[in-house]
Amino acid sequence: MGDVGPTCLADIVPGKDIEGDDGSDPSVPPDWLDRDRYARGRQAFEAHAFQFLLTWHFSLAMGFAVRPLLEALVFTGRSSTPATALKRYLSTYKFLAHWHLGDVFNPTCTAYEKAQTVRGYHAQARAAMEAQLGGTWLSQYDMCVVQTGFMGALVVAPQTFGLRLTDEQRSDYVYFWRCVGRQLGVMDKFNLCGRGEAVAAHITWEVLDEVVAPDEADPPEPDYDTIAHAYLTGMNPLGPCANMWSIPAMLTYAFAFLGKKYSGALTCADYIRLAGYHTVRLLVVYAPGFAWLANNVVLAATYLLLALPDPSAREGCCPAVPGTPGPCRRRRAAPVTLTLTPARRACYAAAAVCGAVLLCVMAAGYVAACGAAVVYAVSYFIGTVLVPQLSR
């Protein structure tokens, strides 16, 4: 079977009235599956984990204004405080990492189990929202719009954090998300990654222009502020410095690389944050060894995180909807593919901590060297050009 899927956003709009799970059997691979291409698509994460993580972080901050996503987050009640938001989005990252490091088509792999776990969470939230609110929730359309948040920015604006992918790598990564979408219940005719990288990029731009930008210009209040503030307050302690993240600074930075302008006001602190984001990007692109070290720090922390037990993954309980019983997980969990001994776990922890410290020292050193170079250049100009001219 050849490429199947939407050619533009208008082709996805009818999916607003269609349930977001097509009921496909995840244990039966689709006819179009190319395992070699799927495997190549997964490899991009391991090679660029640091840039992927930052891009997802900024994409999520942009996505909070999208009404179907925001309404689902508010309804489930698991993202309204810094503590619950941090727990929820760390869990989301763990799912993403499992999918990128495993095989979502292999029933004996944790990635497969985690894909079906998320599919179950969606089913529980969908049923609860439709029972209480009526209408169609977490539809095929909603699933596709959310899909752009995970793969869209990496395809249309990889330069945001210095990500360098070849045309083939971008194409393979879009194919990877075609596969993940299918395992989450997205119908082929609505899967925006079904027709390749060029069409996926086109639809992503349409989503940005016609969905994200209008919602960002007039975000739903007060829910938007509540959810966004909870997320960033929860994430800020994890940054290299206090209060590194703010919605105005992050949107200003992200919009600039998308050829757009953020209409909100910036404080002095936001301008300092902006300078920090640009500094990180310059370090990734131009500082020898920085991107390699940052990537390996993220991977070490990721492997350690994946080895820790997930307290929310209890049989018969869906963390997406508080107090909701049901088969969110398969009754017979797939074998865990990542098992670390205490010694190995300690090694990963030490590598992550030491690497992070070294990363900060390296960044400070590069910034100091650049600052010294600027001071030297200005001093040289004053001493050799300006002063002789003034003394004549």
Quick summary:
By secondary structure, the protein is mostly helical.
Layout of secondary structure:
Elements (H helix, E strand, L loop, with lengths): L8 H4 L22 H13 L1 H15 L3 H10 L5 H20 L8 H24 L6 H17 L10 H17 L13 H21 L5 H13 L11 H11 L10 H19 L3 H18 L9 E2 L5 E2 L16 H50 L1
Antiparallel strand pairs: 1-2
Fold and architecture overview:
The protein is mostly helical and 392 residues long. It is built from 14 helices and two strands; from the N terminus they run αααααααααααααββα. It has a two-stranded antiparallel sheet with strand order 1-2. A hairpin with a 5-residue loop joins strand 1 and strand 2 (324-325). The protein is globular, with a radius of gyration of 22 Å.
What would the keywords be for this entry?
392 residues, mainly alpha, two-stranded antiparallel sheet, 1% strand, globular
